[in-house]
């Protein structure tokens, strides 16, 4: 199978699991590219983004694990400021490894529960 189709299969599987248990909690969505990593907390009931952080900001740059850790800390701080303490982690089709895992661990250390 092609790489993209495997990615899409993982993404659908993750989103289906999230939809089944994310009724009352917003979701922390992560997207990574070769140059940047992005995280946003989305309230699906209201259809709006509650908080966002990425390596496009001044605090973190690049697409390495250190930048992902900084984005995790930033999203946790932004969530706390918005009054969000508990989220559902949406890794999309990305494997929970490397930068995605580093972002999640940093967000947990920053006070987010998932």
From TrEMBL:
Signal peptide residues on this chain, from the entry's feature table: none
Key words of the record: Ribonucleoprotein, Ribosomal protein, RNA-binding, rRNA-binding
Record InterPro entries: Ribosomal_L18 (IPR057268), Ribosomal_uL18_bac-type (IPR004389), Ribosomal_uL18_bac/plant/anim (IPR005484)
Cellular compartments per GO CC: ribosome
rRNA-binding in keyword set: yes
Source organism superkingdom: Bacteria
Entry annotated with the keyword Transmembrane: no
Main function: This is one of the proteins that bind and probably mediate the attachment of the 5S RNA into the large ribosomal subunit, where it forms part of the central protuberance.
UniProt similarity note: Belongs to the universal ribosomal protein uL18 family.
Subunit note: Part of the 50S ribosomal subunit; part of the 5S rRNA/L5/L18/L25 subcomplex. Contacts the 5S and 23S rRNAs.
UniProt xrefs under HAMAP family: Ribosomal_uL18_B (MF_01337_B)
Annotated protein name in UniProt: Large ribosomal subunit protein uL18
Gene name of the record: rplR
């Amino acid at each position: 199978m092609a790489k993209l189709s495997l990615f899409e299969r993982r993404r659908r599987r993750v989103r289906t699991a999230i939809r089944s248990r994310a009724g009352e909690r917003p979701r922390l969505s992560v997207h990574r590219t070769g140059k940047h990593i992005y995280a946003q907390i989305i309230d699906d009931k209201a259809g709006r983004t509650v908080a966002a952080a990425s390596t496009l900001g001044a605090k973190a740059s690049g697409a390495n694990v250190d930048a992902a850790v900084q984005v995790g800390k930033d999203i946790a701080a932004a969530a706390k400021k918005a009054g969000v303490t508990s989220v559902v982690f949406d890794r999309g089709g990305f494997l929970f490894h490397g930068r995605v895992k580093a972002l999640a661990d940093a967000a947990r250390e920053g006070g987010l529960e998932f």
